[in-house]
Each structure stands twice: as structure tokens, then as C-alpha cells.
Amino acid sequence: MFVIDLFRQLDPVVQALLAGVFTWGITALGAALVFLTRRVSAALLDAMLGFAAGVMIAASFWSLLLPAIELSERLGYRGWVPAAVGFLAGGLCLRAVDQLLPHLHPRLADTEVEGIPTTWRRTTLLVLAITLHNLPEGLAVGVAFGAAAAPTGVASGATLAAAVTLAIGIGLQNFPEGVAVAMPLRREGVTAWKSFHYGQLSAAIEPVAAVAGAAAVVAVESLLPFALAFAAGAMVFVVVEELIPESQRGGHGDLATMMTLVGFVIMMTLDVALG
Questions:
Q1: How far apart are CA 23 and CA 141, in angstroms?
Q2: Does the CA dihedral 111-115-118-124 come out positive or negative?
Q3: Are the CB atoms for 113 and 182 separated by under 8 Å?
Q4: 229: domain range?
Q5: Can you state the angle between helices 205-219 and 122-149, rounded to 10 degrees?
Q6: Mean pLDDT throughout 165-175?
Q7: pLDDT digits (tens, 9 = 90+) for 119-141
Q8: Is 178 within 8 Å of 192 (Cβ atoms)?
Q9: C-beta atoms surrounding 110 within 10 Å
Q10: What's the rounded Cα separation, in Å, for the pair 189 and 222?
């Protein structure tokens, strides 16, 4: 594959940076829908959020947890220990951030702000809510590229193709997240350009997190299984805490559930077929 061959010549941190920019760009593409319409139907938004949840669940296992278990055994750990410790640590870390960072989920009233009390504007709180989604996604992409460059990772089956596949999957599910931030703002009367700006800004953290994740595991190879599982735990927390509940709020729960299954199958197929 041309993309794989091109990436192979680059430093893993640069690979992670480019992948993070790609996933950021897909979020911007979703936010750009505000230039075409003021609103997206609740059914479509619920379906997209359900699809995003399915992609993240599948990526958490096939691209992160399973490689973490295989790497653990090669590094001399009990196979389940780094996976369990890292997974729980990732979820607890995101829980702490969720408790502290002021944010507001799309389609909720201003009175339902989470985190510490604040006087920040609604637009800022909406952006921060999706930024919280995107932090573990960027980290997952970076760790995957770092694993593909580490000798132990390669020996355990972590490949550049698998990392690229994960980036593609994360990109697919970033599209509805861009829509979820930008469209409510546009509907409330914010200009198209401002709505787009806030929508794409929510994913600006992804290249930063990707670079940090790749640099950490390249520098300290023994962190690899813990880092992979940490990213998985953080992503599953986001799915259970935010994506699935949000996909059920618009009154199309059955559709969202079916699209979660579709998203899972598509990501699983991508990982197995291309990774």
C-alpha cells in the first residue's frame, strides 16, 4: 500500500503527528457541514454517534488491548496484568479529568454543565466536551505508531499497517464529533465560520496527544503494553460515559444501537483485513 510505504520512511513521532493531523482534519470536515445546512436531523446525528461508539469499542480491543496482552507476554509480564492495570488507569484518569474540567455535552441545557463551577461561555464548554473525547483518541494513535516502531512491538505483531488502520478508524468516527459541536452552535445563530472554527478546534488536541504517546513509548519500550491498555481504557470510558448516552438522547435509540454494531464490525474488519 502506497501510504504504508511512504510512512515507513518517516520517524515514528512524525508518523504519529501526520496521523493526528489526519484525524483532526476529518473532524474539521464534519464541522464544515455548517456551510451547507443549519441543522442535521436528530436521527442522523444519533446514528453517527452510535457508529462512532462502535468504532471506538472495536479499536479499543483489536488495536489496543489485544496487542497489549501479546506484548506483555514478550516483555516477561503476566499477560493480563499490564492490560488490566493500564485499562483501569486510563478510565480513572479520564474520570478525574471529567470531574475537574468544565464542559457541556451537546444537546444539554446550560444548567447541566459538568466539572468545577465556571462562568465560561456555552461555546467554550461544548468544545471542551468534545476535546475530552479526542484526547484518548490522539493518544491511542500515537501509541500505536510507537508500538509499530519498537522491536518488541514488531515481534508481537504490532505493524505500521495496523497503526494506519487505527488512524483511519479514528478518523471515521471523528466526523460526527465535528458535526456534534458545530451544528448546535449554527442552529443557535452562531455564524457558519465561527461554528466551523469551534467544531474543528475540538480535535486540535489529537496531534499533540499523538506525538506525546508515540514519543513516550519510543523512549521507554517497557511502557508499551501499559500505554496501549491505558489508551483503551480512556476510550472505553468516553464511549460509556458520553457517546452512548448522547446517541440515545434524540429519541432514536434503536437506530443508534444498530449503528453501534455496524461501527464495531467495520472497525474490526479494517483491523483484521488491513492490520
A1: 9
A2: negative
A3: no
A4: 44-274
A5: 30
A6: 90
A7: 777 777 877 877 887 889 999 99
A8: no
A9: 9
A10: 51
47 by Cβ neighbours in 10 Å (0-12 / 13-18 / 19+) ranks as buried
Q: Does the residue 9 lie in any domain?
A: no
Is 38 within the bounds of a domain? no
User: Does the pLDDT at position 5 exceed 50?
Assistant: yes
Q: Is 18 exposed, middle or buried (0-12, 13-18, 19+ CB in 10 A)?
A: middle
If we measure between CA atoms, which residue out of 22, 49, 74 comes closest to residue 228? 74
Distance CA(130)–CA(152), nearest Å, equals 34
> How many domains does the structure of the chain reveal?
1
Whole-number CA gyration radius for the chain: 18
pLDDT for res 124: 79
- For 2, counting Cβ atoms within 10 Å of its Cβ (0-12 exposed, 13-18 middle, 19+ buried), the class is exposed
Strand partners, 103: 114
**pTM of model > 0.90:** no
For residue 182, CA distances in Å to 3, 136, 187, 190, 213 come to: 30, 21, 9, 9, 28
Helix axes of 160-187 and 42-58: crossing angle, nearest 10 degrees: 160
- At what angle are helices 160-187 and 12-31 packed, to 10 degrees? 30
Nearest to 202 by CA among 170, 179, 184: 179
Closest CA to 130 of 270, 263, 24: 24
Q: Tell me, what's the pLDDT at 155?
A: 45
Q: Let me know if residue 106 belongs to a domain.
A: yes
Beta bridge pairs of residue 114: 103
Q: Is residue 49 part of a domain?
A: yes
